[in-house]
Amino acid sequence: QVQLVESGGGLVQAGGSLRLSCAASGLTFSRYVMGWFRQPPGKEREFVAGIPWFGGRTSYTDSVKGRFTISRDNAKNTVYLQMNSLKPEDTAVYFCAADGSTRVALIPTAYDYWGQGTQVTVSS
Fold first, then answer.
1. Which of 50, 19, 20 is nearest to 34 (CA)?
2. End-to-end CA gap in the chain
3. Is 36:51 a contact under the CB 8 Å cutoff?
4. Count of CB atoms within 10 A of residue 76's CB?
5. 95: Cβ–Cβ under 8 A, 6 or more apart, which residues?
6. Is the CB of residue 94 less than 8 Å from the CB of residue 106?
7. What is the mean pLDDT of each run of 10 residues along the chain (124 residues)?
8. CA distance 83 to 68
9. What per-residue confidence (pLDDT) applies to 54?
10. In the list 3, 20, 79, 84, which could disulfide-bond 34, CB 3.0-4.6 Å?
11. Rounded to 5, what percent of the chain is helix, strand, coil?
12. CA-CA distance, 78 to 85, in Å (whole number)?
């Protein structure tokens, strides 16, 4: 049974930092593209960042470029999202997802497995 478990969310002031983690089990982690998505209140789920399984070029949505960094540790079956210079508009539930293809996809439907999400709230 595949499980993705996010952690690291919380309440932070604008300008602060958080590091999200997503621990995976039940799949060959090193063979999966990993993505982070977020869903702000009342809005649709949106792509934030993605990293290929082979450690290639990462992808980010424009609004987080230069502030967020996605990374993975295949030995620990974990993907991370380092979030710096947080803004109130970053407030959302953040989800990690796994995709068995070879390229980072930007749409949620491309991903095979999802975590339960972790809340990130940025106060102004």
1. 50
2. 40
3. no
4. 12
5. 6, 36, 37, 38, 39, 45, 114, 115, 116, 117
6. no
7. 97 98 96 97 97 88 98 96 98 97 95 98 97
8. 4
9. 79
10. 79
11. 10, 50, 40
12. 23
